[in-house]
Write the structure tokens for this entry.
Amino acid sequence: MRFLERTLQRAWEAKGQTMTEYALILATVAIVLGSLYTTAGTEVETLVDRVGALF
């Protein structure tokens, strides 16, 4: 029973993620999306150039 009380006490004291952790997650997502956007832009530009060369 004492184990259960200690476990519940620790769970109650846990506050969850801090704003710093949220900021790090947001920064990571922004970097990944930025690199995907850059890569996709390069691919689209290449395709447009190929189509333009046909005409």
Observations:
- The CA atoms of residues 13 and 47 lie 55 Å apart.
- The mean pLDDT is 84.
